[in-house]
Structures are given as structure tokens and as C-alpha cells.
Specification:
single chain; 220 residues; 9 helices; 82% helix
Length: 220
């Protein structure tokens, strides 16, 4: 928990530093999403390469193709209807331009780039380590790569849920992923609840103290 708290403090410092450099919250969302996607791809490839005995089969012909058709249809509606064009013009394109300008500006400065990478990748990695240790403490023998893949998949799903901190959605995704890979339901549930207690709920008072400190110093 102490390591996780230090990483969260570093992440907060990263956000504050980059914000004071002139980058807003919307501009930081793009690089953050990119770092999560990269880390997810690494864990998915690692888990699939070294543990090929685990397969999650998707009935592509039944679900994937209709989903693609639905996405294309929705994109077409956005492009041909006035509300859709307004949404693209006012919401999507400004976000993409802001994210692109932020990545370009940060990439030109090695110090900023190192700060962004440390904050963007360090905390998710610590979260994966915490989940892996919790699973092992309850007797689960899942390899680290698979735990990382489960965490990143659940995190991607939780990020889309309209709840703060992925409450409920992240826990459900983690338990479902762990049990799908062979961890007993009781072990998975206990491990996830203890992991969330240590890495989320116990950090709430620490976060309140940190927020008070940065407010007193005039950072926010």
C-alpha cells in the first residue's frame, strides 16, 4: 500500500506539473488513453505468447461482424446528420487535435516525456503487482502475465462505465476475468475485494490529505 501511495503521489505531481506547463485535462486524456492501450497490448501479447494453453474463444461470425456493422452505421449517421456533424465538429475533433498537440509538445522535451511515461505507466504496473500479490496470497496460482491481462481488460471496461473510480465495474471485470482463467470464484472474489480495499479505499484519506496539501500551496 505504501508503494501504491507513493506512485499515486508521483502521478498527482505529474498531472500538476504538466498542467502548469500549459496542458489541460482534455489534452492529458489522449496520452493517458494511449499509455493504457499500449500497456494492455503488451500484457495481452505476453499472456498469449507464454501461456498459449489459455484461450478465450469469441464467436466472430456471430458477434464481431454485427458489432462492426453497427459501429460503421453509427459512424455513418454521425457523418450525414446535422447533430452528428455538430458532435464531431465540437467534441471529437477538438479532443483529437488537443491530444495530438500535447503528444507532439511533450515528445519534443525528454524531461516531460519521461515524466509522462513514469506517471502513465508506473501506476497501472503497481496496480497489477498488487492484484497479483493478492491473488497469490489467497492461493491463486495465476501467472503474472495473465493477471496483467485481466487487470488491463477490466480497467478498459471500467473506464467506459459512468461511475467514479470504476466502482463496481472494475471489481466485476476482475472477478470475471480471474474465474475465466481458472481461479476459483471464492479465491477471485476475496483477492479482488482485498486488493481494492488496499489500493482504493484506504487511499481515500491519503488523497484527502494530499489534496489539502496542494491546495494550501496554491497548486490547485
Amino acid at each position: 500500500m505504501a508503494t501504491n501511495a507513493r506512485l499515486q503521489t508521483l502521478t498527482l505531481a505529474t498531472d500538476l506539473t504538466i498542467t502548469r506547463m500549459g496542458y489541460g485535462a482534455m489534452q492529458l486524456a489522449g496520452p493517458g488513453a494511449v499509455s493504457n492501450a499500449v500497456l494492455a497490448a503488451v500484457f495481452f501479447a505476453w499472456a498469449g505468447r507464454h501461456h498459449a494453453g489459455v484461450h478465450l474463444h469469441l464467436p466472430a461470425g456471430r458477434y464481431v461482424l454485427p458489432a462492426i456493422a453497427l459501429i460503421l452505421a453509427a459512424g455513418g449517421l454521425l457523418g450525414v446528420t446535422p447533430p452528428g456533424r455538430s458532435f464531431l465538429r465540437e467534441k471529437v475533433w477538438p479532443f483529437l487535435r488537443a491530444a495530438a498537440s500535447t503528444v507532439t509538445g511533450i515528445a519534443s522535451d525528454p524531461a516531460k516525456l519521461a515524466l509522462l511515461v513514469t506517471g502513465g505507466l508506473g501506476l497501472p504496473l503497481i496496480q497489477v503487482v498488487g492484484l497479483a500479490l493478492s491473488v497469490r496470497a489467497f492461493g491463486g496460482g495465476l501467472p503474472f502475465a495473465q493477471v496483467g491481462a485481466v487487470y488491463m481488460a477490466a480497467r478498459l471496461v471500467a473506464n467506459a462505465a459512468p461511475v467514479p473510480g470504476g466502482l463496481g465495474a472494475l471489481e466485476a471485470g476482475l472477478i470475471a476475468g480471474l474465474t475465466a482463467l481458472g481461479v476459483a470464484v471464492g479465491v477471485a472474489t476475496s483477492a479482488v475485494l482485498v486488493y481494492r480495499l488496499l489500493t482504493f479505499w484506504l487511499n481515500v484519506p491519503l488523497g484527502a490529505l494530499a489534496l489539502g496539501a496542494v491546495q494550501r500551496k496554491g497548486h490547485v
